[in-house]
Amino acid sequence: MSRVHHLEMIQSIIRRMAGNSFALKGWAVTLVSGIFALSSKDSDKTYFLVAYIPILVFWGLDAFYLRQERLFKALYDRVRAKDDETIDFDMNTSIPELQSEKTAYCNCILSKTEFWFYLPLALLSTAVVIITHIP
């Protein structure tokens, strides 16, 4: 019973990290589109560059939550393999056994889910800047 409870605790954290990631993606789109909606066609190009700030910030935050999610998934696998007698309800994800190439921050930034969401958002922002400022 104690292993199941520990796994449920870890699973709830994984679910929360995934929810945070989803919310960040929504906020990124909302802020970028809001910046473009508030700017006018006659405004300076540098004003449009402000749209890249939320893209970069949310990309970094989203990668952080993805890394945490991956670390807790690794912890889940570690706890799953333990006997009930050895369960200690440890939630520490900084132990060396959980660190891997997959849980590295750089790999999280360049993961498919992050890269193929934030790069098109940045390219779309670039396209909007170019289209709105063609003489």
Characterization of the model:
It is built from five helices and no strands. The chain is an all-alpha fold and 135 residues long. The chain has one domain. The radius of gyration is 20 Å and the shape is elongated. The relative contact order is 0.16.
Please specify the SSE layout and strand pairing.
Elements: H1 2-38, H2 45-49, H3 52-80, H4 105-109, H5 112-132
Gap between N and C termini, in Å? 69 Å
Total strands: 0
Structural domain tally: 1
Count of alpha and pi helical runs:
5
* Beta-strand content bin: under 5%
Which percent bin holds the helix content? over 70%
| Morphology | elongated
Output the radius of gyration: 20 Å
Taking the sheet with the most strands, its summary is: none
Order of helices and strands: HHHHH
Give the averaged pLDDT, no decimals: 89
Give the structural class: mainly alpha
Low-confidence stretches are none
Identify the notable features of this structure and list them briefly.
about 140 residues; mainly alpha
Quick recap:
The protein is an all-alpha fold and 135 residues long.
